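Board notes (copied after class):
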Amino acid sequence: MRPRHVALGGLVFLAITLALAVHFAPVLIFTLSLAAPSTEKWFAAVSQRVTREDVRLPTRFAGLEADLYRPARPRGALLLVHGLSRAGRRQPDLARLAHLLASQGVIVAVPQFEGLAAFRLTGREVEEVRAALGYVATLSTTPGIAGFSFGAGPALIAAADEPGLGVVGSFGGYAELTHVIGFVTTGAHVFHDARYLQPQEQYNRWKLLALLVGFIQDSDDRQRLDVIARRKLAYPGDDTREIEASLGPDGHAMLTVVRNTREEAVAPLLADLPAGARDALRRLSPLAAIPRLRARLLIAHGMGDDSIPFTESLRLAEAAGSRAHLALFRTFHHTGPRALWPSIIERTRDGWTLFCVADELLPH
């Protein structure tokens, strides 16, 4: 009897091992390929062939230009919402991510959101994302969505009222825009009793101005602020005092917010913004929408992010409760791994965190 029991036990162990290998192989391949691009060619033989199509979504889905990544044997669909990037849907890291997801069986749609590509956040993005979600829902019975950076806010808001989503992802996203403004201008951010201070790049200050320009209703001030933002983004030391002198009250209030460096001044300066701008900041902050989400919420953030603080993701996770999977990366900044990292232990820990994120993101 004993040899028979040993043989049976060996068969059970082998079956479990094979089942785990089948289940986790796509996750492992995706994780290794994403973290170490040089390994991608190792898995070419077992990854699905991917074709990329330039498509225009049907008019009822806003007629957006999009890239559609199609695997040979699809088993799910995902909408990716890019952040503030001139390259938009063709941002290299995003395009590579879409291709890797498709190679593991996910149909990936990456629309071009012109406002985000122009460093704008106006509210129109939410409606465009909703329309794109409607299109992706025609590709799969359990579609998902993932937003990146400032694109995560519109993605979360749009997803809150969309039934039937399998997963909703926020990668480097925000909960409330007022907190992001305070962080970018002063370097300070808080979560409950914990306070953090992080050096800021001047470039982020002018990127913030470009983001907020659309909230100013006065067309002349909006145009002047746009010129200031573009010139400062090209060269932060550019002298724009002549343009600034011609700003009206609304434009001056917005520029004062962006130039501020004092933590205690953030709230009163925001209160001085025109009512329309304050309302836009509220409407485009997704924290209030989180309780309406019914899908799994996947939240990831680099703790070294200098554009949006990781405490914003803590707020999102707290609002979502048990439905959230929170992943914090110690060796990541806003767009990916840091060039220099403190220890192999932290890199290994982040590797495991990335594996768990991939397991949540990929369909099973």
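Comment from the instructor: The beta strands are 50-56, 65-71, 77-81, 107-111, 144-148, 167-171, 188-191, 194-197, 296-302, 324-329. The first strand starts at residue 50 and ends at 56.
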